[in-house]
Amino acid sequence: MMKGYKPILFKLHIVIILLLFMMLAHPAIAEAKSNKLNFQIQKKTIVIDPGHGGYDKGAKGPDGTFEKNVTMELARVLAAELEKTYKVILTRTDDYWIDILKRTAMANHLNADMFISIHTGGSFLHQASGISLYYYEKVSTSALMLETESMEGTKSSNFKERWSNVQGRHQKNSKIFAERILNSLKKKIGKTVEYNTEIQGAPLMVLEGADTPAILIEIGYITNPKEEKSLNDINVLSDIAEKIKNGIDDFFEKAP
Ligand SMILES: [Zn+2]
Description:
Blueprint: H1 2-25, H2 27-34, H3 36-42, E1 45-50, H4 67-82, E2 87-90, H5 100-109, E3 114-121, E4 131-136, H6 147-150, H7 157-163, H8 171-186, E5 197-202, H9 205-208, E6 214-221, H10 225-231, H11 234-253
Parallel strand pairs: 1-2, 1-3, 3-6, 4-5
Antiparallel strand pairs: 4-6
Bound molecules: zinc ion (ZN).
Zinc ion binds near residues 147 and 148.
């Protein structure tokens, strides 16, 4: 009995070594290794906030387009674009109002890695145009008073105290995040439109309570007849969404 034991043990060693070799050389394992970065990106949670909703229609275009509908449409297109890579949550999924502070509180409770509030510009000047990116800054770099700032909704002091100024420690990353989106929007992809884009720091309440990198993006001026038209064009919205996604990917890939 003892005589046959050693060769069996020896063969077992060979079998184990062969199995290990086969496992390591397996294409699925090699692929998993190379996809490590993608896998890390997949775990990120992004909260998209379609501005306004319900009784709060936002700005209105000369042709009667409401900002609340454009923000919802872009949020949907952007969510579809991002869902391939990220976990995406919308603060509202239809035409109803949510308190400004609850929007960021939602992102905080979900431990979101990013918060994006979507708006359009509205100006009495019909020639005002372009895309503006905002990050939170206590003292405004511009004299502009934004609608989101004056629109406090049904303000809850609990939320206000709890999350007050948490954005301060994310300010640097929020600015970098805005810059990544800016760079991406400036890049031309094929046939696409060229956008006038700028970044500003502003004391925006909708960003103040976000405990994560957060930006507000104004995608063109709904009060500009030409831009109102393009904001109703699904191709333009898809193009903007694709570029925002590229900026987000870039932000996470080079994350500090
Ligand atoms: Zn707005």
